[in-house]
Each structure stands twice: as C-alpha cells, then as structure tokens.
Design goal:
Blueprint (H helix, E strand, L loop, with lengths): L1 H28 L3 H29 L6 H27 L11 H8 L7
Length: 120
C-alpha cells in the first residue's frame, strides 16, 4: 500500500511540475497582457496545488502527522490568485492596456478602452 501512495505522490509531483511549466511557457508565448494573465492564475495555481497535496500525503505517510502548513498555503493560494488576477486585469483596463488585434471580442475591447458600454 505504501508503494502505491508514493507512486501517486510522484504522479502528483510530476503533474504539478508540468502545469507549472505550461504556465511559465504561457506567460512567455501568449500574445497580449490579458491572455498572459491566465497562464499564472490557472495553470500555475493548479500545479502548486498538486505539489502541495503530494507534500501533505508524503508527510502523513512518513508518520509526521497531517501537515497544516501545506493546507494553509493551499487555502491562501486558491483564495488570493483569482483576486490578484482580477485586480491586475482591472488595473490594466484602467490604464487602457491595448488588446491584441484579431481577438474574438475585438469590437468589445474597443468599447472598453474608450469607456463606452458594450453593445448588445
């Protein structure tokens, strides 16, 4: 049974590492500020969550009890990441940071940047 728990924790660690890598690549490769904002808030948060769950499992498996620090870190991360992303996006809209040409909501983005109510 211990082998399977260690294998599952290893799987979670690798999965978390892959999500963090995807989030980092998304920050570098995505075309504009607003799409780049999704990479660290979505993929990286999930990656850190996987790593913290694996850490909690391994601490419990070693007989050190339930590690409350990782649970508090996870709670703090999952609460603050969406709020901070919202605040950064709101600040970018206030500064009128331009959208990339050819986005799906290009017409709406023009209305937002000149502070008109979107049509429709």
């Amino acid at each position: 049974m211990i082998f399977w728990l260690e294998a599952f924790a290893s799987f979670l660690l690798l999965t978390g590492g892959v999500f963090i890598l995807i989030g980092a690549l998304g920050m570098v490769k995505l075309p504009d500020f607003y799409t780049r904002l999704h990479a660290p808030t979505k993929a990286t948060t999930l990656g850190i969550g996987c790593i913290l769950v694996a850490s909690v499992m391994l601490h419990a498996l070693r007989g050190e009890g339930l590690s409350i620090q990782e649970l508090v870190i996870s709670l703090f991360l999952f609460i603050t990441a969406p709020v901070s992303a919202y605040m950064v996006a709101k600040a970018a809209l206030q500064r009128r940071t331009p959208f990339k040409e050819g986005t799906v909501n290009e017409e709406m983005s023009k209305d937002i940047l000149v502070r008109r109510a979107p049509k429709g």
